[in-house]
Structure formats: structure tokens, C-alpha cells
Design goal:
13% strand; 212 residues; single chain; Rossmann fold
Length: 212
């Protein structure tokens, strides 16, 4: 099938997520899905067959998501479509009657879960991790170096270890990420690619408030 896609869906144990997994699989797409109910995933895998790849994952756990995401990429490659479907809803009650623990669980799944699945953690101070991530991605059209740190205090209050961390994160990481990504950007896009590094205007204003 020429338009066959790899589709990642969270929350496939039941409801809309399960329905989407079944429909997309029936249309010939490859499905990578996760949910928290093992028995439901076993049944879904039986119905979908070889095109389904389902794992028990709590999207509120960044460690579980990281492990699952790497497994999906290693097995299927980068997905063509990501559907953040996993969600909870509180019982029907006024907000002040919803227990704090119940509301916290909702936030963990509905908000933090989306962030955990959509983003990928990268320590830009780890050269090997930078090289690995850049190697897994297609050639970038835009590279925006935004990672940074501003020490809270004057230079007399800044310990050597704080200064070293600041330079490594604010300067060296830009070098490492750009150096890893630039060769493929040039080869793919020639003069059309964009490389941008952001400094902190707030830090400039704090250290020199007379600046316009």
C-alpha cells in the first residue's frame, strides 16, 4: 500500500483509542499503541494482528514513555502520525468536591502525559546523546539552540562550578548540537537551512538595566 503509515496512539485500551487503532489497522496502517490495561492490549493485538505493536505504558511516567518511545523507534522508525489520545476525566462533581489526589492524577495523564509523549528528553551536555538523536532525525530545516541557564546572583556569588555549568550549557552545547546537525543540513538544504541560537535578553537587562 503506497500510503501506508506508522501511527502511534496512546490510550488504546478502550474507547476512542481502541476504535482508532482498529480502524487504522483495517486500512492497512502500522499501529504502535499503549495503554494501562494488559488484558485489553492482548485482545487488541489479537484483533489487529501483525500490524499492531502494543505495550503497557503509563504516559504519566516519563521513564516508561522514554523506554516505550525508544522501542517504537528502534522497531518501526519515526512515526508518521502521533495521536495523544490517553486521557482521564474526573467524576461529575464541583471542583471543590474533587479530591486532590484524583485531580493530580488527571493532570499527570492529560497534561504531563502529552508532554512526555510529544517531547524527547535530551541532555545537550552529553555529546553521545546529541549525536544519537541527530542521527535518528531526518535532516533539519531549522535548528534553534534555546537551552540556557542564568545564575541568580552577581559574579562574586557565582561559584566556579556554577560558571563552568553556565558556559557548558549556554555555549558549548550550541557548538555540540550545531556541529552534529550542520553537515546533513548543508547536504540536504544547501543555503536554505536556518541555524539560530538564542541568548537571554532578560539576563542582559538584569546586568545592564540602562540598556534601551
Amino acid at each position: 500500500m503506497p500510503d501506508k503509515r506508522t501511527i502511534v496512539i496512546t490510550g488504546v485500551s478502550r474507547g476512542l483509542g481502541r476504535a482508532m487503532a482498529l480502524e487504522f489497522a483495517a486500512r492497512g496502517h502500522v499501529i504502535a499503541g499503549c495503554g494501562r490495561t494488559a488484558a485489553a492490549l492482548v485482545d487488541l493485538r489479537r484483533q489487529v494482528g501483525a500490524s499492531g505493536h502494543f505495550n503497557v505504558v503509563d504516559v504519566a511516567s516519563d521513564r516508561q514513555v522514554d523506554h516505550w518511545a525508544q522501542k517504537v523507534i528502534d522497531t518501526l522508525g519515526p512515526p508518521d502520525l502521533l495521536l495523544n489520545n490517553a486521557a482521564l476525566i474526573n467524576r461529575n462533581a464541583p471542583l471543590w468536591q474533587v479530591p486532590a489526589g484524583e485531580f493530580s492524577t488527571l493532570v499527570d495523564v492529560n497534561i504531563k502525559g502529552v508532554a512526555n509523549v510529544t517531547t524527547r528528553r535530551l541532555d545537550v551536555l552529553d555529546d553521545a546523546a546529541v549525536e544519537q538523536l541527530v542521527g535518528e532525525l531526518p535532516p533539519l530545516s531549522i535548528l534553534f539552540n534555546c537551552a540556557g541557564y542564568v545564575h541568580n546572583g552577581t559574579i562574586l556569588e557565582c561559584a566556579p562550578k556554577d560558571w563552568e555549568f553556565t558556559m557548558n550549557l549556554n555555549v558549548r552545547s550550541m557548538y555540540a548540537v550545531t556541529r552534529a546537525a550542520l553537515p546533513r543540513m548543508i547536504a540536504e538544504h544547501q543555503s536554505k537551512g536556518t541555524w539560530s541560537s538564542m541568548t537571554s535578553w532578560r539576563a542582559c537587562r538584569s546586568s545592564a538595566p540602562s540598556l534601551p
